Amino acid sequence: MRNTRPADIKKMIQGLIILTLLCWATQTLVSQWGFGDEISGEKFVAPSRQSTSIELRSDATISGSEIRLNQIARWPGAGNDALEQTGDLIVGRFSSGRASLAIDLDELKSILEGAGVNLASIDFSGALRCVVTRTEQAPVEPVVAAPAAPTTRPIDTAVESTSRSLRDILIAEVAERFALPVDSLQVRFSQQDEKVLSLSDSSSKFDIEPRKQRNIGDINWDVTVTAGTAKQKHSISANVRAWQTQIIAIKPIVTRQVIGQSDVTEKRVLVDRLPDEGSLTIDQVVGQQSGRDLSPGVAFTGRMIEAVQLAKVGQLINVIVQQGGVQLKWVAEAREGGAYGQTIRVRKPGTRDEFSVLLTGSQQGKLISSPSNVALIP
Questions:
Q1: Per-residue pLDDT reduced to its tens digit, 127-151
Q2: Residues with Cβ < 8 Å from 318, sequence gap 6 or more?
Q3: pTM attached to this predicted model
């Protein structure tokens, strides 16, 4: 074995010391760089999402019956933000003969929320209420008759009062096609069709051919406009949405749970598709049982509820019998099951006499028919 000289051992120790010092210096320098970055504040911070500010006007003057958001409110950067598409949202309508309407800020917030606008990203300012005044459209001047002919009828004025624009005709067609009230519709036409849509049926004739569509959303028409001897074809498109009243769960609901009044609420929302099963009313939901587990915020459909059986086959039910001014109660045996509002067959115990009973409660009903040869009062 070769012997290590003292000089070699000394060099080895010096090398280890130098290596240790280099490692310590490098670590200290890196740490100081990081500390310096924290002091100078030169580090990346994700930008926070800026909110949009909407200022509600205290008053506004419009023509026509529809009140839109951009007529009663203003916001910076209009035309460049997400609210541009919401600017023509109808937030109110004048009823016939009314010339003034007040829209509260809380009402406006409710409408925007129902239309799907995220209120958390909006800062509201300005007035708490906007009073909207409707201006009368300038009447068409009737033809002035000569003094010698005082019986001339104001034909032009009558035509003006009954004329409709192409826009109104198309909206009415959509309402009739989908069996919806006109005032529940939010229709947004293409900007390039505005000139054609303003034409009136008093000066032009319209041949309208709707394209087949099963639901609202993007709607299209083929319209031929005839003015005198000239004809012109147009393809007009619009996005159609509708306000619907939905029944919303406000509490967790489990399967087979009977739904109470405090479990649900009504909410008016703007939808772009109509439900296949139709809308439910709160009376159709309360008192029924849930067909599955539901979370808060879920809108009810017909498939989510099941009728509660108020009577089962073989059960004894209390039957109210009304004869003249006399009301009696007797017991009958259910021959079939049923839910609230349904009619079932019952039989008097110990006999074969059957009756028809309308169910009004749990194991309760009201007699609605009976065989003519059977005595109802024993």
A1: 999 999 998 654 444 433 434 444 3
A2: 329, 330, 331, 363, 364, 365
A3: 0.64
